[in-house]
Amino acid sequence: MITRDKIDKILEEYRGKDIAIATMCSHTALQLFYAAKKEGIKTVGICTRETKKVYEAFPLAKPDEFLMVDSYRDPFPEDELVARNAIVIPHGSLVEYQKDRFVDLKVPIFGNRMSLFYEKNRHLMYKWMQESGLKTPKIYTPENIEGPAIVKLPGAKGGQGYRIVKSSEDFEKNFSHLTEEERERIMIQEFISGIRLYPHFFFTKIFEDRGYPTNNGRVELMGMDRRIETNIDEIYRPLAAGIQTTPNFSICANSEIVVRESLLKDIFEMGKKVSDASFKLFGGLYGPFCVETVCTDNLEFIGFEISSRIVAGTNVSAFGSIYSGFSYGKWVGMGNRIVKEILKARELGILNEMVF
Ligand code: AMP
User: Distance from the CA of 249 to the center of ligand 1, in angstroms?
Assistant: First the structure.
């Protein structure tokens, strides 16, 4: 992994110059570009030829400059980005396409790349959830599966290829093709039933007049969504038509959700615990994160995953949510919130604390 010293040196060179906000044209790029442009910051989109037309379709959210690549798996244009004084905002596609390379990228990344490293490795992520004291699903090995379990393949592929198995025999029947290495990297979790809720948090230690206190700063609740996954979320349709269907969990959309107000305390507590544990484990997560949860029949939250960067669900509230409205009195989305933090940190001369 690149050292903090090297990134600090790059940031030092940005001092006194105009910065740019850069990201890959995918995932949450539209809201990030829109928010940065609104603040008069230059935006740079790393883009493929086919995707460019999509971003050109939205004049207020189109990046000021495109850096073209053949594929999002290509090496990241680090030098071009540094030459533009860019800070990269990481999102799910960057983590997925750049694989383990993102930890070495020689360009400043908003947040702490260590948190992405924890997110990327399912076992480290589970350690983080346990250190947080979250209630979590049981974890099985292929040999001891008891009852319905969800088998998660390595990488943040948006649920694609996940499968429910009922027993160890069922697992072997469906996953005998896995290599030893793949078997090591999958995770088998107890299948939790209930309502899925994805709260969008933002950790700050700069702004103290809003949010929920943590040991190191505050977590703001910027919004909440529910994912819509194909085909599990409309599986009643093929079943009603008499079509035998295997559940699949590929994310295709998100919808905004507002919870019963008495649940907000538990939601904030989860955000606080995950934030506190991040400081114990790897020096703290800054900026946006999400705890993926299921709220069970007795209104208990079970956390099954942490996303340690902006999540695609924030797109539903790119112009603000009920919750961000109660903090800001105007429509502030996660993109605006990130840009606001960067500008303030720059003004205070502490950008290096939340960029690595
Ligand atoms: P993930 O990659 O962990 O975000 O999971 C993708 C989707 O699979 C989630 O959005 C849920 O719909 C479903 N899922 C993941 N873990 C569980 C679990 N332990 N119990 C029930 N559903 C789950």
Answer: 7
Instruction: Tell me the CA distances in angstroms from 73 to 46, 96, 99, 106, one per residue in order.
Output: 11, 9, 8, 16
Quote the tokens at residue 71. 């594929």
Rounded Cα–Cα distance for residues 119 and 47 (Å): 24
Over the chain (356 residues), the average pLDDT of each successive run of 10 is 96 96 98 98 98 98 98 96 98 90 94 94 92 97 95 75 94 91 90 98 95 98 97 96 94 97 98 98 98 98 97 98 95 96 96 96
Residue among 193, 292, 300 to mutate when testing ligand 1 (max atoms within 8 A of CB): 292
Its pTM surpasses 0.85: yes
Query: Helices then strands (H, E): number in the chain?
Result: 14, 14
How many residues does the structure list for the chain?
Answer: 356
The residue whose CA is least distant from atom 16 of ligand 1 is 304
Taking a C-beta distance cutoff of 8 angstroms, is the pair 258, 322 a contact? Answer: yes
Give the number of other CB atoms < 10 A from CB of residue 73: 11
Which 3 state secondary structure label does DSSP give 173?
Answer: helix
Can you tell me which atom of ligand 1 is nearest the CA of 162? 8
For the stretch 42-49, contacts whose Cβ atoms lie closer than 8 Å and that sit 24 or more positions apart, written own/partner, are: 42/18, 42/84, 44/20, 44/81, 44/84, 44/86, 46/22, 46/72, 46/76, 46/77, 48/72
